[in-house]
Fold:
Amino acid sequence: MAEQASGVMALARGLAVATLALCAAACSFAPTTRELGQNALTAMGGAERVRAIRNFAMTGGTGSRSGLGQSVNASASDAPSALADVVETVDLANGRAALAYEVITPGGFAQRRREILTKSGDRPVGLEDVGQRPLTVMSASGLFSWGTQNTPVMTLRRNIVVIALSAAEAATTELTESRTLDGRSLQYGKTILDHESVGVYFDTKTGLIAAYETLDSETMLGDVTALYLLDDYRAVAGVQLPHRIRVQKGGADFAAVRFTGATINNDTAMTLFDIPPAAAADVEQVLAAGSDYSPVTLTSLGNDVYFAQAYSHHSLVVVFPTYVAIVEAPYTDAQTRTLVKRIEMQFPGKPVRYAAITHPHFDHTGGARAAAAAGATLLVTSAHEKAIRTLLEARHTNPADVLDTNRSTGGKVGSLSLFDGKYVLREGEQALELYALTGSPHVDPMVVAFVPKAGILFQSDLYFPATGAPSTPEAVHLLQALRKLGISPSVHAGGHGGVAPFDELVRAAGS
Structure:
C-alpha cells in the first residue's frame, strides 16, 4: 500500500513538472511565482511533507568562506578560508538556528566554532562556543560567525524551506520571466518573505528551486544583493533538500559548502539549543539589557586606565578629565554598545569622544559603527582610511542598525580623524599616544597605544599577554619597534589574552 502511494506521489510530481515545463516553453502567458512555488513543493516531496518540517540539519559539510577581512594589507582582498565539519541546524518551529564548523585560514589559523541562536521563553538569546573558551551568553545581535553566514540569524531567514513555502504563497498576480543564471535557463519570479522581497529562480525541468536572491545587510559589507545557488538535491525522509549551496554577496563569492548528510524532524538533536543551568544568571542579564548585550567588564589598571575585558576581543579605556577614549571597537556592535553603556554608568557626564582603531581586520572593527553611533571620532591611520570609511558609510537597512537609523533621524554619526606615524590625545595630565607601526607580518601598518602616565601598552593580535604564549614573528617585530621608538612600558594589555608585566613580552621575544 505504501509503495502504491509512493508511486502515485511520484507520478503526480512528474506530471506537474512536465505540465509547467511545457507551459513555460509554449504557453502565451508566463506561469506565476505561486504556481511554480507550489510545483516546487510537489517536486520536493509534496506540500504536506514540506509543511510538516519542524526542524532540519545539514551535516558533514566542507567548503570555503571568503571575506573574513584578515589580509596583511588593508587594500588587498582575502584568499578564501576553508570550512570543515560544517553542521547547520534550523529549528523552524521555535525560531532557532545554529552554525557549527571549523574554519582554517590560508595562514594556517584554525578554530572550531559554534554559534547558536536560541530562546529563553519567547525571547532570543545567543550562545557562542569557541575553542577552549567557556560557553558565552549574549544577545542575538552579539553573535559573530565565520561560517557560511555571519550569524545564525541569517541561516534562520535564508533557507530552502522558508523560501519554498513563501514562493508557494506568493501573490497570484506575480508572473515569472525567463532568465539565464549560472549557465541555466530558469524562470524568475518574486515573493514576499515577511517584509522582504525575494527573487526566486525555478528550474522548470526538475520543478525545484535553483536559486534565490534578496537584500542582505552584512555586518561588515552593509546592504548587498545576495544570491543563493542551490543544487545536488537529495532525498531526506522523503523530502528533496539541496546539499550544495553557494552564496554570492555584492557580486563576489561569499561562501560555498557541500553537505554529505541531513536529517529532518530529529527532535533529539534540538537539545543543542538548551541553555545550560549554569548560564541561567547570564541569560537573565542578557534579557535585562535589551536588544544589544555582550559580556564586558571594566578592570582598573590605575591612573584612570581600564581594561575592558570581553570573552574574546578586548579594549582599553582611557579616562580624561572631560571625556573617555577607547582603543579598539572589536567583534560586534553589541559588544561596543555594551561597553559604551558601562562607561556611561561608571563615568557619568564623560562621553566616549574617541575610538582608536588598531587595524581593519573584521573581528577588530565589527563594533566601529556602534562607536560612531555613540558620537565617537574614530582615530584611524591614513593607510586604513578607505577600509574604515567604507565600513562606516555603508547602508544597513535590512535590518537597520543604530548608525543607519541615526543618519536618517539626525542622530549621532561620529567622524574619522586620520593620522600618520603618531597621534596624541592630551587633556590635563592624561595622554594617549597612538603609533602606526610599519612592517608587521600580521598587518601593515598596525596601531598600538601607549598611556605614558600609567606606563601601559595596548596592542591586538601581536602577542597574547598573560597566556604563556610563545614568541612569534609578530611579537619580535613589536618589541623591536617599541625599542626604536624609545617606549618602555611597565604593563602590557592585549586585545586578546589579558594583562601582564611588559617583561613577559621581553622574555618571550627579546634577544
About this structure: Residues 396 and 404 are 6 Å apart (CA to CA). The domain at 2-273 is CATH 2.50.20.10 (outer membrane lipoprotein receptor (LolB), chain A). The longest helix spans residues 2-26.
